[in-house]
Task: inverse folding
């Protein structure tokens, strides 16, 4: 009973077309920007593992560091972006700066050539842009929908986002085919330039169609470093941050999952980006329904169910299953994992945070998870390098189970003692 009510708000009408209409145009405008931007970013993400490991011959340990930087580099900038956005009360402007930085970084990949160091610097700049934009964007979503509909709002946004993530790898495959080289650097350069052009369109859509949320200026001292640090004095925020870090430590990067699949099934390089298409199709189909389900039965059980799907993905990679059954189950469940966890975690965070520090609070949670993810990627890469893929994925599966148990203990509502 207690588990099913965390994050839940009673509301009439259940899931209906009318309830989705109440979300407002800003949620859909932000979703459109994310859709276009994700076409761009997923074009790069889909080819990056095979480009680095097979094209530039990086080992698993080196790839783990690069992959960790790709997400972990956002951590400190999420904090800075969140605080600045709350301080100046211009969340849209800070998000726009982040989108623009990521767009320009796509051209940097062309200039970096085959230098692993230069690629690491460019990817850090790209993820810096993501770090600046993510918390202000998610804060705008929480401020553009009623509290009892936050699961739906994030579900709709993430569904639109995943449309772009679904189309991005397909666009990468198409560009590689047109470029006439699935393995040479010329084909990859064409992907990076095309990605830049699409990302620029996303920045323009943000500038033209997204409305900022300019609340009245809060009393002096409400938005300050002291007040931001004070958020962690709240039991709910502190527990959610710890849980986010624990779950981040249990999650390995998408690239590792796809590289393990490729190693098991010997997928041709030109078809490698299609693995992300399968994952994003599952995400696309399930994000909105699972967001609505989280509003109805509770956000915590849906999120923990998502990590249950992740454990199953890891076990499938260890199983003797092969062929289309392996692809369908692994990629479908991987998409379900993202649909049940990504937006739902932010929907859990929103009601715990005051409006004046909403962006900062979300950034704190996201930063903790990003830093934990960096550690996870490095450790998984080292484990694969020195102990082999089977041992590494076995450890990862056990870590997820431990993380789910710890999160349950941290976040399940406490029964109040009777007087």
Result:
């Amino acid at each position: 009973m207690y588990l099913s009510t965390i994050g839940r708000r009673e509301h009439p009408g259940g899931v209906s077309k009318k309830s989705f209409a109440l979300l407002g145009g800003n949620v859909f405008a932000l979703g459109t920007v994310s859709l276009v931007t994700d076409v761009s970013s997923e074009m790069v993400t889909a080819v990056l593992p095979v480009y680095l490991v097979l094209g530039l011959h990086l080992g698993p340990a080196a790839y783990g560091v690069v992959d960790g930087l790709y997400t972990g580099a956002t951590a400190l900038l999420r904090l800075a972006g969140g605080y600045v956005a709350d301080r100046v009360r211009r969340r849209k402007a800070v998000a726009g700066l982040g989108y623009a930085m990521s767009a320009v970084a796509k051209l940097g990949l062309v200039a970096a050539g085959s230098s692993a160091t230069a690629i690491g610097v460019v990817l850090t700049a790209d993820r810096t842009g993501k770090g600046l934009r993510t918390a202000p964007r998610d804060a705008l979503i929480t401020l553009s929908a009623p509290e009892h509909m936050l699961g739906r709002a994030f579900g709709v946004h993430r569904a639109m986002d995943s449309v772009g993530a679904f189309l991005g790898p397909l666009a990468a495959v198409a560009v590689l085919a047109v470029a006439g080289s699935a393995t040479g650097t010329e084909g990859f350069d064409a992907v990076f330039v095309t990605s830049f052009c699409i990302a620029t369109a996303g920045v323009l859509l943000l500038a033209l169609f997204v409305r900022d949320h300019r609340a009245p200026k809060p009393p002096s001292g409400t938005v300050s470093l002291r007040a931001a640090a004070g958020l962690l004095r709240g039991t709910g925020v502190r527990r959610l941050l710890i849980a986010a870090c624990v779950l981040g430590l249990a999650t390995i990067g998408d690239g590792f999952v796809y590289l393990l699949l490729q190693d098991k099934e010997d997928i041709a390089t030109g078809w490698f980006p299609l693995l992300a298409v399968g994952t994003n199709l599952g995400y696309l189909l399930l994000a909105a329904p699972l967001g609505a389900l989280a509003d109805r039965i509770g956000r915590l059980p849906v999120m923990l169910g998502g990590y249950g799907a992740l454990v199953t993905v890891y076990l499938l990679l260890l199983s003797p299953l092969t062929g289309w059954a392996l692809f369908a189950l692994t990629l479908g469940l991987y998409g379900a994992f993202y649909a049940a966890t990504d937006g739902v975690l932010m929907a859990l965070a929103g009601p715990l945070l005051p409006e004046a520090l909403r962006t900062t609070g979300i950034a704190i949670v996201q930063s903790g998870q990003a830093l934990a993810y960096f550690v996870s990627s490095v450790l998984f890469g080292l484990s694969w390098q020195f102990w082999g893929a089977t041992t590494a994925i076995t450890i990862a599966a056990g870590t997820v189970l431990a993380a789910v148990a710890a999160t349950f203990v941290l976040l399940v509502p406490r029964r109040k003692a009777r007087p």
